[in-house]
Amino acid sequence: MKLCMIGTGYVGLVSGVCFSDLGNDVICVDKDLNKIKNLKKGIIPIYEPGLDELVLKNFKNKRLKFSSNLKDSILKSDIIFICVGTPTKKNSSAADLSQVYNVAKEISTSINKFKIIITKSTVPVTTGDEIEKIFSKKVSKKLFSVVSNPEFLREGEAIRDFIYPDRIVIGTKDKRSNKILKNLYSPLISKGAKYINTSRRAAELIKYASNAFLATKITFINELSNLCEKIDVNIEDISIGMGLDKRIGSRFLRAGPAYGGSCFPKDTKAIVSTSDKFKTNLSVIKSVIKSNNNRSSLLLKRVFDILNNNIQNKRICFLGVTFKANTDDMRDSSCLSMIPSLVKKGAKINYFDPTGKKNVFNKIKNVTFSNDVKSAITKADLIIIHTEWNDFKSINFKKGVKNKNYKIFDMRNIYSAKKMKEQKIKYFAIGC
Ligand SMILES: NC(=O)c1ccc[n+]([C@@H]2O[C@H](COP(=O)([O-])OP(=O)(O)OC[C@H]3O[C@@H](n4cnc5c(N)ncnc54)[C@H](O)[C@@H]3O)[C@@H](O)[C@H]2O)c1
Ligand SMILES: O=c1ccn([C@@H]2O[C@H](COP(=O)(O)OP(=O)(O)O[C@H]3O[C@H](CO)[C@@H](O)[C@H](O)[C@H]3O)[C@@H](O)[C@H]2O)c(=O)[nH]1
Question: Based on the domain organization, do 67 and 117 belong to the same domain?
Answer without folding.
Answer: yes
